[in-house]
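Let's sit down with a protein and look at its sequence and fold side by side. Once you have written the record down, we can walk along the chain together.
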Amino acid sequence: MSEIMQLVDSEPKYITANVSNSHNDVVAFEIKLARDMTIAQLKTKLEILTGGSASTMKVELYKGDSLVTSFNNNDAKLGFYIDCDGMRLHVIDTFASFGFDNESVEKFELTKDQYEQRNDSVRNFLKQNRLGKYNEEEMQQMEAKRREHAEELLNRAELCTVGSRCEVTVPGNPTRRGTVMYNGPLEGKNGIFIGVQYDEPLGKNNGSVAGKSYFVCPPNYGGFVSPLSVQVGDFPVENFDLDDEL
């Protein structure tokens, strides 16, 4: 029992996450959040930072460019969904998509200058407290990190020439060896992906994604990963023949 309590106590109480929103789809800032906060409390916090309304807000969780889940249970704890730093929370303003286009409804709109002059606006609050995009130093740091990440991604992708031997290391999976079979974009996804034919059936496909073939290999021998997960080098095929073992 004491060992279980020690494991629980050893879990970090806070996580850091990047935040983007449906207005610009750009990661704007990084925030530190308590793992035991509810999704309702998270939305209230994001309301202040993004200008969206907590009552009509939809929050999605991304790992890189891949959607992990949507936060549909406001009573759930954040730690139930997020177990590591560096994931992205994407805030969607569903109010903007409700479609109040009925001509019989009079629309209330502020000009940009009128909104700038309001003292009770979310934008004014962010400016006064130097939060989000109004924290110039933080934004410069975020932009520098983004450029550094993009440059590293491109440099690693250039090394992944088709036909090269490689090792693939993805968190939560064993290190796998294989051959680079594809280098480029995937339809419907952002970024560059490296297609690998593994030496063992430890993949997820046969070189196809969503019905489109990018290379050909046996079922479960293919996979597509980020260039950052691929190390190109002299990685000979390992001997998996167990018949010679005593």
The mean pLDDT is 77. The CA atoms of residues 61 and 67 lie 6 Å apart. The radius of gyration is 23 Å.
